[in-house]
Amino acid sequence: MKNNLLQSFLSFHLKNESFALGVNRVLEIIEVSDEQSITYLPKSPETIEGVVNFRGQVIPVVNMRLKFDMEAHTTSDKYVIMVLNLNINGTEQVIGAMADKVVDVLEIAEEDIQDVPEVGQGINSEFIQGLVHRDKQFIMLLDIEKAINSEEIIQLKDSLEEEEETIPNQIHV
User: Fold this and answer.
1) How many other β-carbons are positioned within 10 Å of the β-carbon of residue 159?
2) Which of 97, 128, 150, 160 has its CA 20 to 30 A from that of 69?
3) Mean pLDDT, range 58-73, rounded to an integer
4) Does the global pTM surpass 0.85?
5) Does 3.40.50.970 match the CATH number of domain 6-166?
6) Domain segments of the chain: what residues?
7) In which band, very low, low, confident or very high, does the pLDDT at 121 lie, cut at 50, 70 and 90?
């Protein structure tokens, strides 16, 4: 039986879908503007949008829409970067994750988290730790470390360490 402990989640949107991740992993939210952009890295994995400078550290930015097989952002779309501190293969890594917008911090009781239904082979629910029904919609609770824990991030981080001094510092936060 689930207990009544409250957990804090940061909710955000990708297209028309609502997601949330543990607020304890969020370092900062960066509002991207015309003066701030993501530096594209040639030959990077498709889900990596590029890199940004976060407090003097070059960090990769994951395009969460592409990660979840959604339509990519257009050049006119507004988005934010959620700067996350994740444990990837036993190492703490700072990573950016693109979202259309951040909505709110939610306090969710463990008893309110519903299991993800088994819907067949076409849906990859390994990144979803549960569902919460709020305001007539479902919010998917992400296991963000499973969603971002991939070889492409590790490979990109390794190559970034070698090239860190040649990447322009376009975002200073």
Assistant:
1) 14
2) 160
3) 88
4) no
5) no
6) 6-166
7) very low
